[in-house]
């Protein structure tokens, strides 16, 4: 074992790339291939990190500059912190209204999604009845269908019901379009929970409904948090649904409002106000992500891993 | 007991199912039906026209352009995104300097990279698109002024204004915003591959690139495949719609060089007032989506490796 270990097993590689070998020997005595790769991988990784972070930092910087400075010297630091950009965006450009609308819509639809999604998922995961599989696939199938196709008739369905351009109408639509993933994820989650606790509760005389709310739902908390984070981000960042179904200025949500701002500010030339608005919308989510980093990553990747 | 059970099932399923049926399933069925009519959306009256809309679609040059761009996105976007993400994830997890007692090692600061790369994933695609619309601005944008600053004054592309470049700009933005998610996803997958596999490969004389293609990629294949489907649906869905609609001139321009199927459905229905024809294009989008998912599932089928 020892003898095979001492010459680094990179012999075939050394022959094909001789310059890499000589370069590597100097910094890292020992594993030559590892040394080059180490420098190379750090270089590439740092480059991409720059490409990700730089535009975001640039936007923060631009939000504190004057319009002239943004256009003439895009890469320079602001001469002083022009906080008035922020207050102008918050009041005159209606960012405060957009924030309020978004909070209302996302608050309502997140609660509804988790409640209705867990109810449906629990029944589909734990009870045997004719049509169970069919309903499950009906829900899950919604994940892969192009939503735009449904939005054309949905616009007129909503219009006839008087739900177009209303906050509550948007909440109902958000819930309906969040159900496929929520049901898919929570069904799998409820299946992994032990049956014995629920059976014990039933023997003690609890009804099905009570067992669900007082025993099963608390047990499903980790799953609810994951799918809750997933839905929160999806609904907070939603752009396509409100663009089609919610076109009145008073009920616009954040993402739409920003696009609206960009179009109108483009004519007025108020770029600093636009970037203040952008950063305003960006920071709460980024801040929350940095604080709850682990949970957010777990919540967003949960669906894709097995 | 039995009676109670069914009452409970019905009681719990009624509301979610009703909402799902009303807002999702019913519009889907309706739209397929409408694609065979001449419904404008503006008046409630319409007549069945058979395959008229479909014949019109086959002769519609803008439809073919949209389809071509959408197919191009579906092919290229997963390839570039997943390729880059696999590369970064491999660098983060296996690219580090070899340490004592460890055959493979992650680079230093790997958790920093994972946090930073993930940033775009939590931002709204609308914010990302707006930011890059400004970055691509040919006169005062971030990119061209950075190019000028490093002495490339003569290289000042028109980016979104150039019909040959605009679609690639859109694609770059979508790649930028999705790579981080897959880096984190693949990193988690790579971390769960047993170290002994790498050890054995190194003892047998395998370099890191052989290790990647012979060990890491096959063991990660399931995740890569579901990522492929996810990226394809994204390239045909809301994200592609949002980036094109927000960033490009027109939107969909210049000269229809960036128009994609979901955008064309939207414009036909809500700008041109031709709801029935829009649903016809939507049906084409549905067929493309389902065909894509079926092809990936078929091509990607491999023996599942348990470890």
Automatic annotation (TrEMBL), chain A:
Coiled coil: none annotated. It holds the Pfam family BPD_transp_1. It is a multi-pass membrane protein. InterPro entries: MetI-like, MetI-like_sf. The chain crosses the membrane at residues 35-58, 98-122, 134-158, 170-190, 211-233, 271-292. Residues 1-11 have a biased composition (Pro residues). PROSITE patterns: ABC_TM1. It comes from the Bacteria. Keywords: Cell membrane, Membrane, Transmembrane, Transmembrane helix, Transport. Residues 1-31 are annotated as: Disordered. It is found in: Cell membrane. Residues 99-292 form the ABC transmembrane type-1 domain. Belongs to the binding-protein-dependent transport system permease family. This is Carbohydrate ABC transporter permease. It comes from Streptomyces ficellus.
UniProtKB/TrEMBL annotation, chain B:
It is a multi-pass membrane protein. Residues 67-296 form the ABC transmembrane type-1 domain. The chain crosses the membrane at residues 7-29, 71-94, 115-136, 165-186, 228-247, 275-297. It comes from the Bacteria. SUPFAM superfamilies: MetI-like. InterPro entries: ABC_transporter_permease (IPR051393), MetI-like (IPR000515), MetI-like_sf (IPR035906). It is found in: Cell membrane. Gene3D superfamilies: MetI-like (1.10.3720.10). It holds the Pfam family BPD_transp_1. Coiled coil: none annotated. Keywords: Cell membrane, Membrane, Transmembrane, Transmembrane helix, Transport. Signal peptide: none annotated. PROSITE patterns: ABC_TM1. Belongs to the binding-protein-dependent transport system permease family. PANTHER family: ABC TRANSPORTER PERMEASE PROTEIN (PTHR30193), DIACETYLCHITOBIOSE UPTAKE SYSTEM PERMEASE PROTEIN NGCF (PTHR30193:SF41). This is Sugar ABC transporter permease.
